Amino acid sequence: MPIPEDVTGDEIDKDVRQELQSLPKTLAEDVAKNLVMVARLIDEDPEGAYGYSKVALRLASRVAAVREAAGFAAYANQKYGEALAEFRAAKRMTGNVDLWPVMADCERGLGRPEKALDMAGAPEVHKLDKPGQVEMRLVAAGARRDMEQLDAAIVTLQGPELASNSVQPWTARLRYAYADALLAAGREGEAREWFAKSVEADKDGSTDASDRLAELDGVEFVDAFDANEVEDESESKDESGDVLESLETPVEDAGVEDHVEDDVEDHVKDDVEDDDKD
């Protein structure tokens, strides 16, 4: 796949670059460029990212960073079985448990929420850092909802991280998930409160909490393009009405009937005068 000229491969994380040092220099550069493209495209063009990840995987399948990148690209394309296989491979290579939450979420994607819950209670969770533990809680709550255990999902999300007033990278998503679970359980008032709190913490727009809040408040957003279409359609109808009105004007209003009657009277008079002469 083509690599843009502005991509050098130096953009990758230093830890990944260090992993690639086990490869020949030229090969390492090619792999690095493909990994850069995966990172660049994974949000806006998941399919494109997936394509570049397959190239990197073909070039260096024994590099853990490559397997991890391939896993995230597959995950972004909802290829959960493939993603799980890649994450497991990366974990075997490094012994790192950082991927544990996303691996559990792959189990959810595969329709196995019970397995995800088992993973949420595994010893590996205690080895996760704080962001990883919060992520694991989000996955576990999602699994509970998959199993229609709404109250359990709500309880799963409760904790010091949710109650804290400090804003962390995970705060907006945690509050959003809690609000969404409350709403699903019919607790609309509480849901509105937590959607509002999610908006306060969501500085980079990672959630649609503001839209959900507006929806609860009964605010409707009209797309400007759609509004213009409605206006044009209304104007078109008005113009059509004017045309129809002009077509429906009675003949006498146009003066045509008067002319016809005059002509008939003249012809009758002429015929009568001709008879008198005879």
Can you put this structure into words, describing what you see?
- The protein has about 280 residues and is mainly α.
- It has helices spanning about 15-20, 25-40, 45-60, 65-75, 80-95, 100-110, 115-120, 130-145, 150-155, 160-165, 170-185, 190-200, 210-215, 225-245, 255-275.
- The chain is globular.
- The N and C termini lie far apart (about 105 Å).
Task: Please provide a brief summary of the model.
This protein is mainly α and 278 residues long.
Amount of beta strand: under 5%
User: Rg from C-alpha positions?
Assistant: 35 Å
Q: How far do the termini sit from each other?
A: 107 Å
Catalogue the unreliable spans.
Answer: 243-278
Return the average pLDDT rounded to an integer.
85
Please provide the ordered H/E string of secondary-structure elements: HHHHHHHHHHHHHHH
The helix tally amounts to: 15
Per the principal axes of the C-alpha atoms, what is the gross shape?
Answer: globular
The assigned structural class equals mainly alpha
The tally of beta strands, per DSSP, is 0
List keywords for this structure.
single chain; globular; mainly alpha; 278 residues; 0% strand
List the helices and strands and how they pair.
Blueprint: H1 14-19, H2 25-41, H3 46-59, H4 64-76, H5 80-94, H6 100-109, H7 113-120, H8 130-146, H9 150-157, H10 160-163, H11 171-184, H12 188-201, H13 209-216, H14 224-247, H15 256-277
Helix pairs in contact: 2-3, 2-4, 3-4, 4-5, 5-6, 6-7, 6-8, 7-8, 8-9, 9-11, 11-12, 12-13
